[in-house]
Design goal:
333 residues, mainly alpha, Dna Ligase, domain 1, two-stranded antiparallel sheet, 13 helices, 8 strands, 44% helix, 10% strand, lyase, cell membrane
Length: 333
């Protein structure tokens, strides 16, 4: 009888110990992490799961516990954690963190590349963006790989907001933006209007970049495009200031002068016929659409009104009057 009672007591004690262990393990695995605001943690390639737990303890994200030594034995699925940069958020539990690292749900960062800026402006922004590797970037080598013969990435990349993981390279970002532009051109080029004075997608990009720089008023883009198309079809020079400014490069001091309009550069559309040799900025979808579908108009001129919009004219006489009205002694389009 005593032996039986002893066995019962032993079983009860064992059950209590097991239940206590299960409870304590569950408490450990589901403990709330100690962060009060979003915090990044980087797991290096080859780092063990035990090393990750040690890192979490060192950074005071979780408390030290003997259960950390048996965690991955009891649940080996958590032993296979992927390297990367992860975001710890208030309210997360240790199990959430381990599950996130097991699935490789890394923190995504973003960069917004705006239309109307030059490649040099984009490049400066990209290499100064946190979490993008700003190591050596060989533009000329990439141009060869992409079979781009223009000598520059100007105009070839699609403005957009791009999402990336920590450690993304400049080359990777450029390749994604380049492919986005290629996809859009391939989709839109076949449905372009007939009778356009450019015969390649690249020439359309050049026109789009000029439209992009000439106006920020959405409803004017197609009208601006229509004026430029009319001028080219009538063998008139474009005479657009943004191309002159682009051709001046670092010599432009913010004030375009008559001497600048007379200076012969490959981009001075007061001196050259047709389009400049390359785009002068990165063009967004709206400007590309305007270049491919210009408004039908008789206008050959436009001049800035000072409020961001333009006055359009079909005759030189009307244009000269508009210049006097809106620009006084300034040169107009």
């Amino acid at each position: 009888m005593r032996l039986f009672q002893g066995a019962i007591a032993f079983l009860l004690l064992t059950g209590i110990l097991i239940a206590t262990g299960v409870y304590q393990y569950a408490q450990y695995k589901h403990q709330s992490i100690r962060v009060t605001q979003p915090q990044l943690i980087k797991i290096n390639s080859g780092q063990s799961a035990a090393g990750v737990i040690k890192q979490l303890v060192t950074q005071d994200v979780i408390k030290k516990s003997l259960w950390s030594k048996v965690l991955f034995r009891l649940e080996p699925k958590f032993a296979k954690l992927k390297s990367g940069t992860y975001e710890l958020l208030p309210g997360m539990r240790l199990s959430d963190v381990l599950r996130m690292m097991r699935k490789g749900d890394e923190k995504l960062f973003s960069i917004t590349l705006v239309e109307g800026l030059r490649w040099r402006d984009w490049y400066a922004q990209i290499i100064n963006t946190p979490n993008i590797l700003s190591g050596e970037f060989d533009e000329q080598q990439l141009l060869k790989e992409l079979s781009i013969s223009s000598g520059s990435l100007e105009g070839w990349l699609m403005p957009d907001t791009y999402w990336f993981h920590d450690g993304y390279s400049v080359k990777q970002l450029v390749e994604v933006a380049y492919q986005a532009m290629q996809d859009y051109l391939a989709e839109q080029w076949p449905s372009r209007d007939q009778g356009l004075p450019y015969t390649s997608q690249y020439e359309a990009l050049i026109m789009a970049s000029i439209i992009e720089k000439e106006t920020a008023v959405a409803q004017e883009r197609a009208h601006i495009a229509g004026v430029f198309v009319n001028r080219l079809n009538n063998h008139m020079r474009l005479q657009t200031d943004p191309t002159v400014i682009y051709g001046l490069g670092d010599q432009f001091d913010g004030d375009i002068k008559r001497a600048d309009l007379r200076r012969l550069t490959p981009y001075n559309t007061y001196r050259i016929n047709g389009l400049p040799p390359t785009p002068i900025a990165m063009s967004g979808k709206a400007a590309i659409d305007a270049a491919l579908h210009p408004a039908t108009t008789d206008d050959l001129y436009f001049v800035a009104k000072g409020d961001g919009s333009h006055h359009f004219s079909a005759s030189l006489q009307e244009h000269n009057q508009a210049v006097k009205r809106y620009q006084l002694n300034q040169s107009g389009q």
